[in-house]
Amino acid sequence: MKHEFSRRQLLRYSGAGLGALVAAPAFAQAAYPDRALKLVVPYPAGALTDSLGRLVAERLRGVLGQPVVVENRPGAGTLLGASQVAKSPADGYNLLVATTTTLAISPSMYATPPAVAADFVGVAMIGSVTLLLVTRPDLKVSNLAELVAAMRNEPGKFNFGSPGNGSMHHLIIEMVKSQEKVNATHVPYQGSLPALTDMMAGRIDFMFLDAVAGMPQIQANKIGVIAVSAAKRLSELPQVATVAETYPKIDLQAWQAIAAPRGTPAAVVARLNTEINKMLESPDVRATLQKFGVEGTPMSVPALNDLIAVDNKRFGDLVRAAGVKAN
After folding, report:
1. Residues 6+ apart with CB under 8 A from 212
2. Selection from 53, 43, 48, 107 nearest residue 78 by Cα
3. What is the dihedral of CA 189, 321, 119, 98, to 10 degrees?
4. What value, to the nearest 5°, has the Cα angle with vertex 157 and ends 155 and 159?
5. What is the predicted pLDDT for the residue at 248?
6. Global pTM?
7. Which residues of the chain carry a pLDDT beneath 70?
8. Complete domains list, the chain, with CATH
9. CA neighbours closer than 13 Å in the CB half-sphere of residue 56
């Protein structure tokens, strides 16, 4: 049976299975943790994932009573940092901020990936990330359907940027191209900021961009916005349709989660899951996540690992169909 998770399903999973988690024995809870934890962020400092990792680390430090040291290890499509965690002891002291790219996209881009989803157990969901389809300021299209029509009418004229080959920002465009049988040239960058700079200068035509990076430029009328990759329209951009409103089959959502090496004790995973879910329910954290363009999504351990398995297959299939390879 084929299973696909939309962001709507992800939200429905938010409460699924929480009651099924077995409470860890009192002695295990008391013993863990007794020293500092390390949280590896497979992105550069200052990126969205880094901000989320530092937020989680700060909150865990308060409830666990131990330091949570954040270490940035970007590279290899996030798999450099992931491989470091995968090879670490499975004792609950080595954690990873794992994104859709890390566990569902990048492994399929390598003949021999440095790390794969099977190397990890999902610990806790942080949330889903809103992406905006933005355009250079003088591109005369007002929605996604008009952009597709322009690509169809003038084949080969348009190019689009992304923060990296095989990123979610890249793959959504590839899915639109494949479904609508249009073409545009992909220009991969080392991160969103240089791509955004080139787009504002008119050197590329459009791109998907994290909402937290795009909103200030949109509000300053420096770029256009024509679609939202989210389950519903944003309150800040009520006139902008979601991608799925135009193309219902394209309902791809980026998510960010915490993972640990496979074999990490179930009681430890359950403890971390409980603490992170509580964190996500707090009003101040939800407000902070909203500023980042992230919808906090408490999720049980079984539900998260089901989502990882399904997205690993469907994004892997998309990567292979599009012929996307690591740089």
Report:
1. 48, 291, 292, 293
2. 43
3. 40
4. 115
5. 92
6. 0.83
7. 1-30, 327
8. 7-129+253-322 (3.40.190.150), 131-229 (3.40.190.10)
9. 34
